[in-house]
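Q: Hi! First time asking for a complex rather than a single chain. Here are the components, and I think there are two in total. Is that enough to go on?
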Amino acid sequence: MAAMMKFPSSRKMTLIAGAIVAINGFFPALWILFTSLKTESELMRLPITIWPAAPTLGNYARVFTDQPIFLFMWNSFVVAVLSTILCVTVSALAAYALVRLRIPAPNVILSVLLAVAMFPLISLMVPLFSVMRDLSLLNTWWALIFPYAVLSMPVCTLVLISFFQDIPRDLENAAMIDGCSRLGALWHVVIPLTAPGVFTAGILAFVNAWDEFLLALTLAPRVASRTLPVGITLYQGEFSFPWPIISAALIIAIVPICIIIAIFQERVVGGLTSGGVKG
Amino acid sequence: MAAVTIRKVRKVFGKVEVIHGVDLTFGDGEFVVLVGPSGCGKSTLLRMIAGLESVTDGEIDIGGVVVNDLAPRDRDIAMVFQDYALYPHKSVYDNMGFGLKMRGASAAEIEERVKEASEVLQIGHLLDRRPGQLSGGQRQRVAMGRAIVRRPKVFLFDEPLSNLDAQLRAEVRIEIKKLHQRFGTSIVYVTHDQVEAMTLADRIAVLRGGHLEQFATPDEIYNKPASKFVAGFMGSPPMSFARLTASGDGKTLSMPSGVVLPARAGLSAGRAYDAGFRPEHVKLGADAFAGAVNTRARVEILEPLGAETLALLSIGGALLTGRFPPQAGVRSGDEVTVSLGAAEMHLFDTETGRALAA
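A: Yes, that's all I need. Here is the structure of the assembled complex.
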């Protein structure tokens, strides 16, 4: 009798799936890191090497001397932080209203909100450009802050809704009896209890804004208002692609994201609501 | 402290009317219990007093001020919730002081009041803990502490003991009564447990299907129930009923088995009435008390409680509950003689369920 085909155990499957995800996510990042430490001649040499033969930090020095990367970073930081604050604030209010207030057809409203996220970004470019031009906001931070905030709102609202739904209504009722308005109850009770959700939404909005290229290129193309993704394109010449320098700039660009996630990941811990109500 | 008046209050959710024009007035410092089965509207009524539900029609007046349009925070009430509703991210101290903080009290005043309340409730050693680190009984005490530090006009309790085990429930019940005696603040207390209602209340409002069945002292509720529903709901075990028919002259009532009981008032000849007997008015043996009517009964079920034994008796087609002595030597299936308290019998209209005037 033929031996029965043996399927790998679920633990093995999990490990294999995890390895695929990790390699898929980390390999390009590692490749960029190694590239940033190579000289241009080593990069072009055949056969291709993975480890830099003579690691150099010269590319990183060039990142700071060739272009005003601190300015790009500052622009990106301001745009990302302000759009995140705006996005999370509005999303929190929207999510709270959809979860708690007796408004007609909340599911329809949520569906419309999510439908907005389905629009291809490219289809919004011309109208957005026109609006920003008419408002004289082109090449300002606000030209990016408003669209970034709005574009991240659907997903942030969805994330916050799932967290708000888990908060027992009586906690807010208790806060309102204790002296809070409805917004006060949201601020003093709901937001602190859904901190993991708020930080998750905030990180999503921040990363979206930090990484965005197409709108930044269209609405804030001037050097002084360029954000990092657009600014990094300045490292390429008309006929040259200095990949090691561009790689170094990319590594520098992801450092703030890594720092922010490292800071907030501890806050993104559930279980805060345990014990407040019977359970 | 304040008197509370509820005038013709109605509540409609969509097309469903859950409170049908309830009128209730109770005085300063009174302990009022709203009691009734699930879905009777007692919690909805309490939440309307708190401002957590809008009032469809009618008026709610606290301390002479109509509060229909006031936010919960402006009604000067404090509420203890069924599920405690403690803020999980705050310490016990901050939970208790939050209401005062929101009202702009100084840190010193908050500390003084929290300390005082925590001493009264014996939770002083828990002030630094989070709600998640407390037992159910401790959480309930903290919830009460949060209410009393505010010194509101009215305390509202929404089934505060329903999540506690029987022993703890009895302990906390006594503490609530002590708190009322100590502070003298008006209390509106919702429960579906008629023992809680009877033991705590100055007056009990019995609700059924959004209607007020009776609003009276525990003594009146027990001894003069306004309806068959109240009679059957209040009391442990509750009143049991038999359908009797009035004689031709309306002066006696008879069971299908032929047992005849004297009637107190003139009854309509030949008409059926529901007669209610409290278990203590159905006793083992003949002539167990003055004016008793003796009859034979079959013991269906015995429930020994230690101090007494409850007996479910079949008497001429009716099932009545009696209180028997603990060592009566009776077994299920026995035929025994019992005394029915004809003078203590309650009569109810079979159609309306309302009690007949004594």
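A: Chain A touches chain B through 24 residues (CB under 8 Å). Let me know if you'd like any chain examined more closely.
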